[in-house]
Predict the 3D structure of the following.
Amino acid sequence: MAEDDPHRYRSPDEDSGRWLDFPFRKGDIVISTRSKSGTTWMQMICALLVFSTPELPAPLGWMSPWLDWLVAPQDEVYDRLAAQGHRRFIKTHTPLDGLPLDPRATFIVVGRHPLDMAVSLYHQSANLNRERIRQLTGQPEPSTPATPPLPLHEWLVTWIDWEGEPKDKLDTLLGVMWHMADAWTRRHESNVLLVHYEDLSADLEGEMRRIAAFLAIDVPESRWPSLVEAATFAHMKERASQVAPDANGVLRDMNAFFRQGKSGAGLAELDEDELDHYWVRTSRMAPPDLLAWLHRVEERTG
């Protein structure tokens, strides 16, 4: 593999190699996030900006497929995107070093406090129909019964402490930091935009306007109020059947996909010693400026 070739990320139900032959178009938008870091939120924002109306023409997950996900055949996903006449916006959980960074496309990376992302991931795991995913991806029957899940606090501590190759397990703390550190090094490139979950929460309209400007989308001023309202957590939760990413029936409860949308749950799970351990761990994984940006809620100076 040449030095500049994308790294191929694989798991039982994902394969970033599906991007290698994807025919990009000028104006394509690729949304690259870790799981539970604001993916659906950014897809919704892009949809609202592209169509300039809250009345979207199809369910969000149908218009904006997760290209790497093996639950749908590659040709089916390619054909669906090829048939779209509007500006396309496509989901991936692959870091930018695993994607062909086509200059015709814009790449939006969304970051979130890793501890909040982890708590959301824990609850999301319980809402997934693993048997349905196994059937859709052609995975074999498990040879042993599934291990009962750990309580949240115990699971979070093990999530923080997992050791291994980040590229092999992206939804660990090491994997999250790998994804974000790679994007951080590219943040000044003309077609890469970093967005923080906390900024979306604090100033949704301001961030939507910033994203629209970066994408060179001109939204009539009169339409902004309705677009911003449609992008709120409450509004998306009300329309979970159209917004939740469940085109293939892998969620047990679409309404449960939108759980709380708040920050701080991860910090609340850990005691002072555990938090100190977390800060030490992350200080070894990413540069201080990225850590300050990512941890937004309470930057540490010592």
